[in-house]
Automatic annotation (TrEMBL):
This is Futalosine hydrolase. Belongs to the PNP/UDP phosphorylase family. Futalosine hydrolase subfamily. Its EC number is 3.2.2.26. It catalyses: futalosine + H2O = dehypoxanthine futalosine + hypoxanthine. The lineage of its organism: Bacteria, Bacillati, Bacillota, Bacilli, Bacillales. GO terms for molecular function: adenosylhomocysteine nucleosidase activity; methylthioadenosine nucleosidase activity. Pathway: Quinol/quinone metabolism; menaquinone biosynthesis. Pfam families: PNP_UDP_1. The keyword Cell membrane does not apply.
Length: 232
């Protein structure tokens, strides 16, 4: 495919029509299977493994894009933690912005994001029309879908303190995962729009793996992609 240099297409441009194929990056095989079930053989979509974490996700997305045929959109998808009051277990979150929540520097006055250090941005905006169209389609189909910022973290949140800190850092933060910013950064480098679609399996907060509802979240992810094929 034709890889465009960084910055040629603004991610905040509105996209009325989507052209080309869709690359979906998920972290693990169970997520890949769920998305594939939802896609029901739709040949416009390709689903690849990103691995866990931002670095592997960026590298694998770049490799997948280099081999992709006529890709017009990249989606980071999978299960996620939901922020209290924003997204409950089983909800779908469509990202309005994809935000690397812990990429920057500490200072005595608090966290300094890349933006304030002058090294680029921690935020990849999702084209507003795309996020709105996806969330509206999911809601119209009766799914509990929310739109809001989705955070990418290197360390999954395991305390109430970190949950509150991240929620304060990014007002309206709806969910957190570990790959979105890496996938979106690779898409941005290729001049392509990025989205993130997450199904909530657990609450962001004190770690309690026994309370994770992975099967429910994977079922929601499957249903979401069955609907998204109609509007993307
Ligand atoms: O054990 C399983 O069967 C299983 C099936 C599917 C996925 C998993 C994962 O553990 C995926 C890890 C993946 O999930 C995202 N995630 C989920 N909850 C959170 C969270 O609270 N904070 C951050 N990330 C979360 C993340 O993107 C991981 O890569 C297991």
């Amino acid at each position: 495919m034709d890889l465009k240099p960084h910055g040629l297409i603004s991610q905040s441009e509105s996209y009325s029509e989507l052209n080309g194929n869709v690359l979906v990056m998920v972290s693990v095989e169970a997520e890949r299977e769920a998305v594939l079930r939802g896609l029901q053989g739709n040949s416009r979509f390709e689903v690849r493994l990103a691995g866990v974490g931002m670095a592997l996700a960026a590298a694998n997305t770049a490799f997948a894009l280099a081999a992709a045929d006529n890709c017009g959109l990249v989606i980071s998808a999978g299960i996620a933690g939901g922020f209290a009051g924003q997204a409950a277990i089983g909800d779908i979150v469509v990202a309005t912005d994809i935000v690397a929540a812990d990429l920057g520097a500490e200072s005595p006055d608090g966290f300094l994001p890349l933006d304030e250090l002058g090294f680029g941005s921690c935020r990849v905006p999702v084209p507003a029309a795309l996020a709105a169209r996806a969330a509206a389609a999911l809601q119209a189909a009766g799914m509990p879908a929310k739109a809001g910022p989705v955070l990418t973290v290197a360390t999954a949140t395991g305390t109430a303190e970190t949950a509150l800190r991240h929620a304060a850092l990014v007002p309206g933060a709806a969910a957190e995962g570990m790959e979105g910013y890496g996938v979106a950064a690779a898409a941005q480098q290729a001049g392509l729009p990025a989205m993130e679609v997450r199904a909530v399996s657990n609450a962001v907060g004190p770690r309690d793996k026994a309370a994770w509802r992975i099967k429910d979240a994977l079922n929601a992810l499957e249903q979401a992609f069955a609907i998204l094929t109609e509007v993307l």
